[in-house]
Amino acid sequence: PNNFTSHLENPVIPNVNPSHAGSYILTVTDSFGCQAISTVEVTIYPKPQTPTIAHNAPFCEGTSDLTLSTQAYFGTDVRYIWTLPNGSMDTTLVPSLVLPNATVNDTGLYSLVIFVDGCLSLPGAEVIRIYPTPAIANVPADFAVCEGDDIILSTTTVATGYVWSGPNGFSSNLQSPSVLNASLVDAGAYSL
Questions:
Q1: Both ends of the chain: CA-CA distance in Å?
Q2: Residues with Cβ within 8 Å of residue 110, at least 6 apart in sequence
Q3: What is the bridge-based pairing of β-strands 108-116 and 119-120?
Q4: Tell me, what's the pLDDT at 138?
Q5: CA angle, 179 as apex, 175 and 149 as ends, to 5°?
Q6: Strand, coil or helix: 104
Q7: What is the DSSP letter of 135?
Q8: Is it the case that residue 124 has pLDDT exceeding 90?
């Protein structure tokens, strides 16, 4: 195929591609001029592309399973070989991997190679981040105020964002909001 010819006993064809597939004929001539002919059929499988890894991260630990996936390949022998941040490997027959209840310990570099009919892809890699769950907010103990007084809410929990909600449509993004001149409709549970 591809106009190949060689006078070497053991020739090598570098960087093969599909045009090199086909029948190779070897003619051997001994010192008496006698010849023997043999044929070998060479099949060339396409090399899988470097995989891209899709995922559902980032998210906070304990809120979701980590789901990784890649493009599907078809062949008589297909395997997806995942390497996790802790160095362990997980081989699957499907193009996805699920790590239940992902935690901050699952943060790191994930890599994947695809094995298809004896051919191995170059590794694809992706950094995955799972964030720690914030500490439960520190809020005041249950308390009472008189009608017309202010309800003063506060927290000592340091965060990048706050969302208070409560009765009578109350909401605030402040760390320590107040309900001024409280009335009976302002009584109830406030959450942060």
A1: 73
A2: 53, 55, 68, 82, 83, 84, 85, 125, 126, 127, 128
A3: antiparallel
A4: 85
A5: 130
A6: helix
A7: P
A8: yes
Q: Distance between CA 49 and CA 78 in Å, rounded?
A: 13
d(CA 67, CA 78): 20
User: 101 near 65, Cβ under 8 Å?
Assistant: yes
| Averaged pLDDT score across all residues of the chain | 94
Given a cut of 90, is residue 40 above it in pLDDT?
yes
> pLDDT tens, 67-91?
999 999 998 999 999 999 999 999 9
**Alpha-carbon Rg for the chain in angstroms:** 33
pLDDT band per the 50, 70, 90 thresholds, residue 46:
confident
Quote the distance between the C-alpha of residue 65 and its chain's center. 11
Amino acid at 122: L
Cβ-contact 189, 167 below 8 angstroms: yes
Residue count (the chain)? 192
Q: What is the pLDDT of residues 125-174, one digit of tens each?
A: 999 999 998 778 888 888 999 999 999 999 988 888 999 999 999 999 99
Torsion on CA atoms 98, 102, 107, 110, rounded to nearest 10? -10
50: three-class secondary structure by DSSP? coil
DSSP, collapsed to helix, strand or coil, labels residue 167 as helix
Placement of tokens 């191995």 in the chain: 120
